[in-house]
TrEMBL record:
Pfam families: BPD_transp_1. Keywords: Cell membrane, Membrane, Transmembrane, Transmembrane helix, Transport. One of its GO terms (cellular component) is plasma membrane. This is ABC transporter permease. The chain crosses the membrane at residues 25-53, 73-100, 112-134, 140-159, 193-214, 234-254. Belongs to the binding-protein-dependent transport system permease family. PROSITE patterns: ABC_TM1. SUPFAM superfamilies: MetI-like.
Length: 271
């Protein structure tokens, strides 16, 4: 095959990939732009006060004017989200492994995990502040209690859906429960686990903001609260926009990781 043919083939794949990406994102971009235009028009036509609903142009001006402060707050919140997310994934995996490996402990632990998940997490924030102070620890703790559950539940679903005939085969050749766990159940659970981490990534953002609401001196949650006390609604919306960007970024980072770790797993198709 000639170099020209290889180059043409590579160029065709690139164009095809770019076309697929465009078809995937274009509807969302069009909808977003239409929403912004309608929002701006409604605020202008009906003369809605910026105190109630600021126009997108006002939010953009506030974003530019407070760029340094908002970027500093974004970095603080992003660090909390990343650390809390990683802790949540590790703890969620550990709990799932314990429940499956030790049957008696699993029967005792699983109901407690479900019961704990029903506790309102906002109510835990002041308790964590009381226990751990106003530093990083209460935010990480709150992210952990919010985000570990989908990781545990997803991995459990994957490990418990293994084909029974495969388990019988492993038992017939003398495999120990630990060998079956790590050679059969864990690999089988990876697609479920990665789906759970995507949910945990978005929940981690919520946990970080709730933790900052409860008590913080920096971060996007603190900026939102401070702007609310100053009746600066445009700054509130600007901070919320950056929170949304963080959520999207962490979600797609988890999705990219999923494509690397379990490329064979089924993906959501927009076609």
């Amino acid at each position: 095959m000639s170099d020209q043919t290889v180059a043409n083939s590579s160029g065709s794949r690139l164009v095809s990939s770019w076309g697929a990406a465009t078809r995937s994102w274009l509807p969302a971009v069009i909808l977003l732009l239409a929403t912004i235009v309608i929002w701006e028009a409604v605020v202008r036509i009906f003369a809605i006060s910026a105190f109630i609903i600021p126009a997108p142009s006002e939010i953009a001006r506030s974003l530019v004017a407070q760029w340094g402060t908002l970027m500093q707050a974004t970095l603080v919140t992003a660090g909390e989200i990343l650390f809390g997310f990683l802790v949540s994934v590790v703890v969620g995996i550990a709990i799932a492994l314990v429940i499956v490996r030790f049957d008696w402990l699993g029967r005792a632990l699983y109901p407690l995990v479900v019961l704990f998940q029903n506790v309102p997490k906002v109510a835990l924030a002041p308790i964590f502040i009381l226990w751990f102070g106003y530093g990083l620890a209460p935010k990480i703790g709150l992210i952990l209690v919010i985000a570990f559950f989908p990781v545990t539940l997803s991995m459990l679903a994957g490990m418990q859906s293994v084909d029974r005939s495969l388990l019988s085969l492993m038992n017939s050749v003398g495999a120990s429960p630990t060998q079956i766990l790590f050679r059969i159940r864990v690999p089988h659970s990876l697609p479920n686990l990665m789906a759970g981490t995507k949910i945990a990534a978005t929940l981690s953002v919520i946990g970080a903001i709730v933790g900052e609401f409860a008590g913080a001196s920096d971060g996007l949650g603190y900026v939102i609260q401070f702007a609310s006390t100053q009746l600066d609604t445009a700054l509130v919306f600007a901070a919320l926009l950056l929170v949304s960007v963080l959520g999207i970024a962490f979600y797609y980072a988890a999705e990219i990781l999923e494509r690397i770790v379990v490329p064979w797993a089924p993906k959501f198709s927009q076609s």
